[in-house]
C-alpha cells in the first residue's frame, strides 16, 4: 500500500505544479496492477483512477528495481529512511482480503481456544489437537473411532448404563478392541510391530491402520461385512 500512496502523492505533485506529458515510474508491479484493476475500489486507489481518467497524459510505467535508475534508487533510500521513523503519519484502510484474513484469524483463534478448554471431546482432541478449516471426509465406521461414540461397549455403558462387554469379557474400549483384545490378534499381527507400542490416537491417520480399524468396526456392526483381505 505504501507504493500506491507514493503514486498518489506523485500525481498530486504533477497536478499542483501543472506538469504535462508525465511518466510516473514505479518498481511495484502489485501497485500498478491495483491501479489498473477494475475490481479494486479502495478509496486511495479510486482517487488515483479518477485523477488518471481526467489526465490521460499521465502515464504509469514499471521499472525493475536496483538497476541503477537514479529516481528509483533515490526512492528506495527515502523509503528505507521513512521505515525507521517512530512517527506513523499515514494510515491505510484494510482491503477486503485483509479484512477477511483478519476475521478468519480471529475466528480460528477463538475456535481453537474453545476447543482446548472444552470439557467434551477429550478423545477426539487427542486425534485433532489443532482445529482446521478443511472439511473432514470420513464415514460411519471411521467416525466411531475418531469420536469414541457408537458401537463401542464403553460408550454404550456410559450413555445408557448397559453392560456391554467385549467378546473376550473385558471392557470394550477403543484401545482394548484395536490394540489388546485377543479376538483380533490374528488381524493385529499383520500390522507393523512399531505400531503396537503406540497409542491409538497416534495411529488413526495412517491408511493401513485406518483400514484395519474400520474393518473391526464394520464387524461389530455387521459380522459378515468386514473385508480382511485389505
UniProtKB/TrEMBL annotation:
GO molecular function annotation: nucleic acid binding; RNA-DNA hybrid ribonuclease activity
RNase H type-1 domain boundaries: 1-84
List, alphabetically, the Pfam families matched.
RNase_H
InterPro entries hit by this protein: RNaseH-like_sf, RNaseH_domain, RNaseH_sf
- Residue spans making up a coiled coil are none
Q: Which SUPFAM superfamilies match?
A: Ribonuclease H-like
Q: Which domain of life is it from?
A: Eukaryota
Query: What is this protein called in UniProt?
Result: RNase H type-1 domain-containing protein
Task: List the top taxonomic levels of the source.
Answer: Eukaryota, Metazoa, Ecdysozoa, Arthropoda, Chelicerata
